[in-house]
Write a structure and sequence with these properties.
mainly alpha; 116 residues
Length: 116
């Protein structure tokens, strides 16, 4: 009885295969509905595009980078002065927290510029 079931399911699977590929027996013979490739499409779409020259990008960002570094230096000096004049064991200054957040944000921006 198990042998009959196996042979039935085997024939059923073969029948499904023939029905899905048509009577010709191959997927290559089935009509394809893909649009033709345009001549401007890349031949190898799996390859990533070439990386831009990082030195050129750094040169473009140089003015902004210098301005941001100067601003970071001024913020760090201000933070140091604020911390020196307050007793951080008793009082947590909101100005210190805000300035530290600005410094962190600016430092991340500078890092992004430096990496290109």
């Amino acid at each position: 009885m198990n042998r009959d079931r196996r042979s039935f399911f085997g024939l059923f699977a073969v029948g499904l295969g023939v029905a899905s590929f048509g009577w010709r027996g191959s997927a290559a013979a089935a009509p394809q509905s893909q649009p033709p490739r345009s001549p401007t499409s890349p031949r190898f779409p799996d390859f990533p595009p070439p990386k831009p020259n990082t030195r050129a990008i750094l040169k473009e960002n140089e003015k902004e980078l210098k301005k941001d570094v100067q601003q970071l230096f001024e913020l760090a000096e201000g933070l140091k002065k604020e911390v020196d004049k307050t007793d951080s064991t008793e009082i947590l200054s909101l100005n210190v927290v805000r300035t530290a957040g600005e410094i962190e944000k600016l430092a991340k921006h500078i890092k992004g510029l430096a990496l290109g």
